[in-house]
Amino acid sequence: MKIELKKATIEDAILIYEMQIKAFAKLLGKYQDYEISPGAEKLERIIEKLNQSFTNYYLIKFEEQNVGAVRIITMENENKCRISPIFILDEYQNKGIAQKVFELIENKYKNINNWILDTILEEIGNCYLYEKLGYIKTGKIEEINENMHIVYYEKKYK
Question: pTM of the full predicted structure?
């Protein structure tokens, strides 16, 4: 099983946009959150993010196919990175790809001691994955609507 990360460029914006819309379509339909859902994000916003000096996008490749992407936000002077978003197309989920991606990211950013991310509390599978990978709930939970809450996670290295 060959899983790789390829640093994305501005030329990859449309590909990232199309995969992101597809990957988050079910969650967008389920929670009807058009404000913060990556499934409702516009192409222009992804281009803005790709141009940010503190952001790196990586295409997730599985057996040479683009199957998702991950964005790493470096928080200056904090030795901290935020993962937002990470997504894998439905047909490639439950193959261990996400776990490998986290391993690859953490190896790529060896100098980072603190990782943060957030997810939908009601998406038990996502919460399980992050906790399995060593992420701990910070205690912060934000209500988006009566059916959806964002839960915050952190992973620290000594």
Answer: 0.96
CATH of the domain at 66: 3.40.630.30
Q: What tens-digit pLDDT sequence spans the chain (158 residues)?
A: 899 999 999 999 999 999 999 999 999 999 999 999 999 999 999 999 999 999 999 999 999 999 999 999 999 778 899 999 999 999 999 999 999 999 999 999 999 999 999 999 999 999 999 999 999 999 999 999 999 999 999 999 87
Distance from C-alpha of 134 to C-alpha of 131, rounded to nearest angstrom: 5
Cα–Cα distance, 78 to 85 (Å, whole number) = 20
Q: What is the residue range of 100's domain?
A: 3-156
Whether the Cβ atoms of residue 58 and residue 97 lie closer than 8 Å to each other: no
Number of domains comprising the chain: 1
